[in-house]
Amino acid sequence: MTFTPMDFDPWRSFGPDVAARYDDVPRGDEDAAVARLAGLAGDGPVLEFAIGTGRLALPLARRGLRVDGVEQSAAMIEQLRARPGGEEIGITAGDMAEVTLPDRYPLVFVAFNSLMNLVTQDGQVRCVENAARHLTGDGVLVVELVCPDPMYRLEQRSGVDQYTHVAGLSGEQVHLDVGRYDRVTQRVDKTHVRIGDHGISRDPLALRYVWPSELDLMARLAGLELRERHGGWSGEPFTARSELHVSVYGRA
Ligand SMILES: C[S@@+](CC[C@H](N)C(=O)[O-])C[C@H]1O[C@@H](n2cnc3c(N)ncnc32)[C@H](O)[C@@H]1O
Fold first, then answer.
1. What is the pTM of this model?
2. What residue's CA is closest to ligand 1, atom 4?
3. CA distance 153 to 161
4. pLDDT tens digit sequence for 146-167
5. b/e per residue, 142-163, with b = 16+ CB within 10 A?
């Protein structure tokens, strides 16, 4: 059996329901991420690709940095605008692989796996190239991505690679993360399923996972080289067991 992509437009992944719930449960490493990014930004300005609801951009702006963002989801932009300080952020609605802004930035970043929301390798390469075009001469690009192997607990059933993960379990609700992925294209189709007294809800999401070494090559195509890689925002060492990486690139 071969992988058949889900009948779902990836651009609809962050609609009004997901956007409204997006900031309900913080990841917990936001302070570390903001401190690390602020340390790289100098006096700014800063550009975030896929800025979302401003989870990192708003606290960065509260440190006195000018933060601009690119975001494709109108619902996520609406949430950002409604938050304190949200009106101050310069947001451009559009595709981070394509948008051209007039300024150049000492820091451009793409956090929380957002590069994976582009579901083709070509789209991801163009996004990294676009980020590089927006850097000042000595500017840096920061990319945060999961490491694919621990994320997609590799199981093969009926010839299709798939996984089920209990993402949350309480007396009131179970939250399952279920997905299928294609090792050929590295595409992942997944759905967050919540089952509880409210009934059942599901949030479909399409992604393309990226190997750390593959990201390094994408950066190289964009004229960048790896400067630092850590296993988290607090400078954790990057090892074979790391579940994510925070990678910093500068001009080669
Ligand atoms: C996982 S969220 C991350 C949001 C934010 N960066 C954060 O750290 O919380 C991914 C975001 O990427 C946005 N996105 C996906 N594809 C995009 C694209 N091609 N151009 C711009 N934004 C995109 C989604 O709409 C969503 O807001």
1. 0.93
2. 52
3. 9
4. 998 766 555 666 667 888 889 8
5. bbbbbbbeebbeeeeeeeebbb
The β-bridge relationship of strands 67-71 and 90-93 is parallel
The best mutation among 117, 120, 203, 246 to test binding of ligand 1, ranked by most ligand atoms within 8 Å of the C-beta, falls on 117
Cα(114)–Cα(187) distance, rounded to whole angstroms? 14
d(CA 108, ligand 1 centre) in Å: 14
How many Å apart are CA 115 and CA 50, to the nearest integer? 8
Return the beta strands (E) in the chain as ranges.
Answer: 46-49, 67-71, 90-93, 105-110, 135-146, 155-157, 160-169, 173-182, 187-196, 199-208, 224-230, 244-251
Task: Name the stretches of the chain with pLDDT < 70.
Answer: 1, 8, 10, 150-159
Domains and CATH numbers, the chain: 10-147+210-251 (3.40.50.150), 150-206 (2.20.25.570)
The string of DSSP letters for 102-144 reads S--EEEEEE-TTGGGGS-SHHHHHHHHHHHHHTEEEEEEEEEE
What letter does residue 32 receive in the DSSP assignment? H
Q: 112: closest CA among 55, 43, 164?
A: 55
